[in-house]
Design goal:
The chain is mainly alpha-helical and 302 residues long. It folds into two domains: 21-174, UbiA prenyltransferase (Tetracycline Repressor, domain 2); 175-302. Helices cover 80% and strands 0% of the residues. It has 13 helices and no strands. The protein has helices at residues 3-26, 29-46, 53-77, 79-82, 100-122, 124-144, 151-168, 176-199, 201-207, 212-215, 220-242, 249-273, 276-301. It starts with a helix and ends with a helix. Mean pLDDT is 94; it is low at 1-8. It binds protoporphyrin IX containing FE and farnesyl diphosphate. Farnesyl diphosphate is lined by residues 31, 35, 63, 66-67, 70-71, 74, 130, 133-134, 137, 141, 155, 158-159, 162.
């Protein structure tokens, strides 16, 4: 086979793979994956012995598609400001690898497909929650980023909704346990994001995003919000131990309290030092906290 034949036969498939990987990058796959992990855990906890696997798979597909659509729409909206931040300048839209029309079409198709799955294969409540989360994230949170540091609280509500979707997908009525799961996910986002907001504070300022670390460059308010979120998270995360449906409460209480205390300790360290190392530690710990906490909740419940 001649060199030219190899090039012409390989190039289209390489181009296709590159295009698909750009499309995947638009969906913020790691955030979607963690959202799906927490939604699956919530479904297992809502219906420990009666979980319908088919409904769970449809719920995950629908939630994943709607969340992916929201991230694509968010990146389309922020295509100009993303070009001003080193962290985001190489994203497919600012780098010009994907056009605006492609992104809009992809966001629309994933939104419609996800909503159709949730409406017809899961239930209406879960579908409405998905739509509410999409609207909050895209229509309220995204434009609010350049206007008010309150944006993080709105983003945290959008980010906490998928865990409730996992619960409602099973048809189980929302009770104290469900609200405690949603509360943990909501509160968790403050240490998670305040660490990020500190690490990338110069990026955010350059892009015109009014994050707390831009409004207050001393980092005192970001530190305080991280500490407050982590502190309130501890009692909220203990609620499943006192609700009768859970299994061995002592093991869960000990584990959950320990994890929460570590997150609080790292938040306090971040609030005191407000440096890159303590922020990166806190960010990493936040990403370990969620799966570690949910794993134990599942172990003692199932
Ligand atoms: C106010 C809400 C949130 C904001 C503003 C936020 C923002 C961010 C940002 C900017 C990063 C990138 C950090 C970097 O590049 O170093 C990140 C990372 C991450 N976030 Fe969040 N996040 C929020 C909520 C959530 C939620 C609800 C989840 C899932 C349950 C989540 C999961 C992740 C994961 C898995 C990563 C690491 C992987 C990656 O960098 O893509 N985040 N977050
Ligand atoms: C079902 C459904 C619609 C779920 C939505 C879940 C979801 C996408 C949550 C995202 C939470 C969030 C505020 C992320 C940061 O976005 P950012 O714009 O601050 O991040 P960036 O600066 O990296 O773009």
């Amino acid at each position: 086979m001649s060199t030219s034949t190899i090039i012409t036969s390989e190039s289209p498939s390489r181009a296709l793979v590159a295009k698909l990987s750009d499309y995947l990058e638009l969906t913020k796959p790691r955030i979607v994956l963690l959202e799906l992990i927490v939604a699956s855990a919530a479904a297992c906890l809502a219906a420990p012995h009666t979980l319908d696997m088919q409904v769970l798979l449809f719920a995950l597909a629908g939630t994943g598609l709607v969340a992916a659509s929201a991230s694509i729409a968010n990146q389309w909206w922020e295509r100009s400001s993303d070009a001003h931040m080193p962290r985001t300048e190489d994203r497919p839209l600012p780098a010009g690898r994907v056009s605006s029309a492609e992104a809009i079409l992809l966001s629309l198709v994933t939104l419609l497909a996800g909503m159709a799955i949730l409406v017809w294969r899961v239930n209406m409540l879960t579908a409405l929650l998905g739509l509410a989360s999409w609207m909050l994230y895209v229509v309220i949170y995204t434009p609010l980023k350049t206007r008010s540091s309150f944006n993080t609280t709105v983003g945290a509500v959008a980010g906490a909704i998928p865990i409730i979707m996992g619960w409602t997908a099973t048809g189980t009525p929302l009770g104290l346990n469900a609200w405690s799961l949603a509360g943990v996910l909501f509160l968790w986002q403050f240490p998670h994001f305040m660490a990020i907001a500190w690490i990338y504070r110069h990026d955010y300022a350059a892009a015109g995003h009014r994050m707390l670390t831009v409004v207050d460059p001393s980092g005192m308010r970001a530190g305080a919000q991280a500490v407050l979120g982590a502190a309130v998270l501890i009692p909220v995360s203990l609620i499943p131990a006192v609700v009768p449906t859970s299994g061995s409460p002592l093991l869960y209480l000990t584990w959950s309290f320990t994890l929460g205390t570590i997150l609080l300790g790292l938040s306090i360290r971040f609030a005191i030092f407000r440096d890159e190392i303590s922020a990166r530690f806190l960010l990493r710990a936040s990403l370990i906290y969620l799966p570690a906490w949910l794993a134990m909740l599942l172990v003692v419940t199932l």
